[in-house]
Amino acid sequence: MITSRRGRGESQENQEETAGGAGVSDEAGTGEPVGPGQGEPDTAEEPAPPPAGPVTNLVVALVVVALGAAGLLGSWSLGLGGASSPSAGMWPFLVSAAITCLGAALLLQARRTGDAERFTSSSWLVLGGLATMAAFASLIGVIGFEIPSALLAFVWLRFIGRESWLLSTLTSLGIVVAFYLLFVAVLAVPIPHLF
Fold first, then answer.
1. Which residues span the domain enclosing 190?
2. Which helix (H) or strand (E) holds 34?
3. Is beta strand 24-25 parallel, antiparallel or unpaired with respect to 33-34?
């Protein structure tokens, strides 16, 4: 009777150690936990897109230079002012100059760059993001920031980020409420708004 109680007590202790441990002990008896897939990544990595060729690199660099040049011209037309009293075009001019210089650097590296990725079907998501941002910018002055902001956040979360419908809806509404409270109610920033 005593032996069986001791045996039950030992087996109970062994069960508690196993349940409290991180995994099953290895067969050599070292006590090191050996779990499934130890030493291997938890998730399978997606295959990398094929690299872009020099022609794609050249086209992208030319687009960057063209955008920078358009920004330079637009900001120049706003007026630059001086260092002590800058005008409305000064900051956009400086940013556009940096973009133009970076585009020129990309042009010089177009043949030697091998780490750029080729355009794939997922590249359309980036263009969709840019299109929704342009729609947001064009609507905010007409109907206020609340509806365009909610729609922009929802589209980005649901369709670009692939979040759930519920999370996308609640987060986009929460963003608009937080922005309204901060910028309109507390800071009284003069941005177009409905309410």
1. 120-195
2. strand 33-34
3. antiparallel
